Amino acid sequence: MDETVVVTPNWLAAHLEDEDEDEHENADEHGHEDPQVRIVDVRDAWEYDGIGHVPGAVSIPFDSYRDETDVDRGTLPGVDAFATLLGDAGISPDDTIVAYDDTHGVFAARFVLTALEYGHDDVRLLDGDFSAWNRDHETTSAEPETEPTTYAPDPLAREESPLVDLETVEDALERDAVFVDTRERHEFEEARLPGAVRFDWREVVDDETRRLKPESELEALLSEYGITPDREIVLYCNTARRISHTYVVLRALGYEHVAFYEGSLTEWLATDGDIETGESR
């Protein structure tokens, strides 16, 4: 599993220890080592405050980086709003960000996708979630001291972005692309894109450990559905939240041809796109 995409709790714990040892030796004028690991907790604020969080984590709740008004594309918050969020949290463009939630990583994966789209080079998903972290590592209720930054995003150009629009999806339907629907069975059977395969995003998660299944097991599982690295893959769900997790997992496995349909089925139905219905495997 590519550690530049997904990191284990032990990886994060080791880097926190290293930074505690080095922060005074390599500090800038604000007392920070730069660049460094910045941890983002995307749970609700009451969970961050009341239940506790990973030491050093800042709170950026899911609703704060999601905007249903399509100010940018789909439910992206807009480049200025996202820059303000990260700047207020003391994050700089050259920091390594590790995001987590307590829902197997699906909300944190949306943060990862958003940060990548706005040009943050090094943003990673914590393998597992807060509950997985809490089994072997300490938590805290203390908020870290942060110094606000002026965060300057560098959004990806359209041709560099994994996000694809309706026209691109229509074109892909004419090719040998694999359309992957990450929703639940009843949603899939009610309406889906033509020829799509259903791959519930939670299938990659081990229910006991709350972490991702072993890499070899994931590759075999994906292959059963025809989701292989040599194919063009188009991901969709309803509002592009659940596909964020699948997208990050595929990137961590080295898949290179993965398109992210931001409009997903919500846009497809609104534009009277062709659908299939009925039972599936």
TrEMBL record:
GO terms assigned for molecular function: transferase activity
Biased composition (Acidic residues): 17-26
Keywords: Repeat, Transferase
Segments passing through the bilayer: none
Biased composition (Low complexity): 141-155
Positions of the UniProt region annotated as Disordered: 16-35, 137-157
InterPro entries cross-referenced by the UniProt entry: Rhodanese-like_dom, Rhodanese-like_dom_sf, Thiosulfate_sulfurtransferase
Protein name according to UniProt: Sulfurtransferase
Annotated organism of origin: Natronorubrum halalkaliphilum
Lineage: Archaea, Methanobacteriati, Methanobacteriota, Stenosarchaea group, Halobacteria
